[in-house]
Amino acid sequence: MSPSSAGRPVGSVTRGTTGVNRLRRADRWLTAVHGRLLRATDRPLVVDLGYGASHTTTLELFTRLRRVSPSVEVVGIEIDPARVALAKPYEREGLSFALGGFELPVPRPPTVIRAFNVLRQYGEAEAWHYWDVLASRLAPGGIVVEGTCSEIGHRAVWACLSAEGPLTLTLSARFNAFERPSDLADRLPKTLIHRNVPGEPVHAFLRDFDRAWAVAAPYGAHGLRQRWLRAVEILAGGWPVHRVAPLGGTARWRLGELSIPWSAVHPVGG
């Protein structure tokens, strides 16, 4: 998609579907894994890009980030003027809403950009392009968290990027929200979702995760969490699963979460 004419937001209107706690899993990950980044920055700016038809998830993000960084400022950006108008009454000190798109009409480079369920309507090449665009807008040391989640947030996958490129891929799900780990494939970022085919690393990763899940079936007698923990341990025998906090380890795995280096699933020829 080519940029809009001068003065107009860059991008397309999304479906706008949202809901209470839909992005809780990603917010929880952000505060735990990158809370230090926010605390180390004076008045960190966080952008919630394409927050949808309701202000709810942006307000939830603001509330959660303020617990770890009291000086954080959050700006929700939407390309639909009507959605911005509806959100404006909920502004408060440190929380605001603005009309815009990928050009990010904010006063200074953001420390964090969160963009969920925004790029699914774009092609793969466009998704890579907008990853580059967003990463180029970051403050030094900043990150982009881009991904998708199910309608009620029980299954989610997101990538974390720096200005240098993608860093990690994280899968997160309620234990009763899937039958096998590869069910999360429909939530892969746009840069990966069409690469879930034989010969691609992400396909091999999900295949091996399914196999580990099957081998760990006996642990299900002690609950789905125990089965997940065992499956991750098995998977870690052949994949560079993050084992050490803050990105990995039992504390994160117990939440139904798993992170791996992006390099392990980078598309062939991508």
Question: Which CATH C-level class of the domain at 24-189 is it?
Answer: Alpha Beta
Percentage of residues in DSSP E strands: 15-25%
Total beta strand runs: 8
Give the low-confidence spans.
1-6
The main sheet comes to: 8 strands, mixed
Q: Residue-averaged pLDDT, rounded?
A: 94
Q: Give me the secondary-structure category.
A: alpha/beta
* Helical proportion, percent range: 25-40%
The CATH architecture name of the domain at 24-189 reads 3-Layer(aba) Sandwich
CATH topology of the domain at 24-189: Rossmann fold
The CATH homology group name of the domain at 24-189: Vaccinia Virus protein VP39
Radius of gyration: 18 Å
- Continuous helix count: 8
GO molecular function: methyltransferase activity
Keywords: Methyltransferase, Transferase
Organism: Nonomuraea mangrovi
Protein name: Class I SAM-dependent methyltransferase
Structure report:
The protein is an alpha/beta fold and 270 residues long. The chain has a domain of 166 residues: Rossmann fold (3-Layer(aba) Sandwich). The chain contains 8 helices and 8 strands; from the N terminus they run αβαβαββαβββααααβ. An 8-stranded mixed sheet has the order 3-2-1-4-5-6-7-8, sandwiched between helices. α4 links the parallel β4 and β5. The longest helix has 16 residues.
